[in-house]
Fold this sequence. Notes:
Helix content: 55-70%
Number of helices: 6
Number of strands: 0
Radius of gyration: 16 Å
Oligomer: single chain
Structural class: mainly alpha
Amino acid sequence: MIDDSLFYDMFEQHLTNELLKQCTAAGLLKGQLLQSEDIDAKWKEYAPEYMADSIKEIAQYPTVSVGWAVYIGMAVACWWSRDWEGLKDQPYKVLYGTEGFDNMDDHIVSDILGLPLQGKEAQKVIELVRQISETAVTFIRQERVEPQSRKAFYLFAHTTKVMFRIGAAIELFRLGYEWQRLDIAEA
């Protein structure tokens, strides 16, 4: 039998690979997960509050419960690119829309990323987030874990971390960042 940490690592990797394929097919990534330690560290800070908000939504709005993590990743990546020193200490609640967690997506897209909600670029992002959120929920359901169990919670936590990273990668790509291999010659 596979140990728990290996199981979750494999789940994360499999989900990441599938979402990278979908994002690449949509033209919002190039098959690679763009990331930064600064951005990943922000997820560790935000995750407890996000989990408290999103767990309440799982039963009625499962795609929202995982999908809003994508938008948070996009917001953090936007801050990282714009002015990390000035914006890195933004509290989680800054991500809330006028209706709190419920319209966090619209607030991030329009007010933080600066995309008109009805514009072509925003609509492309919104549609992709919907699609990859459905994929993520399907991945969780395929594991056939007992709802509200410890394993279900950990699957959910790992899924939201992947979604956050995908969101950050999408925004970095949208802003023109690319993954480049650096060959450092030995002296």
